[in-house]
Amino acid sequence: QVQLVASGGGFVQVGDSLRLSCTASGRDFSNYHMAWFRQGTGKERKFIAAVSRNMVAFHTSSVQGRFIVSRDNNKVFLQMNSLKPEDTGVYSCAADLSMSFGDGAYWGQGTQVTVSS
User: Fold this and answer.
1) Tens digits of per-residue pLDDT, 81-91?
2) Class of residue 21 by CB neighbours under 10 A (exposed 0-12, middle 13-18, buried 19+)
3) Second label for 52, Cα 20 to 30 Å away, from 28, 87, 101, 106?
C-alpha cells in the first residue's frame, strides 16, 4: 500500500521558519519525481517545489530565495524561511513518474501551515 505522510506544519509568525517532511512508502520511489503543493482556503492547488528523480530542484518564483526543497531517497523536505501570510495553506507532497503530477500521481494527506501577521 502506497502512502505519503507529510508532517511539520504549524502556526507561525511572519518571518519565521518551518521544515516540512514527507515520507513515501509502499513501493520503490527512486524513479519518481517528488513535489510539494499548497492549497489555500477556497483556492486551487498550486505547485510550490519539486525534486526530480535526478535530484534537480525546482521552485516556483514566489518562493525562490525563501524555500529550499531537498530529497533523501523516499523522503522529500521543504525548508521554508521568511514565511509570509500568503504562504498559508495545506501543503501536500506528491510523487509521480511525470513532472505533471496529474492523474497518476500519489498524494499525501497534507499538513497545515498558517502564517500570522
Assistant:
1) 999 999 999 99
2) middle
3) 87
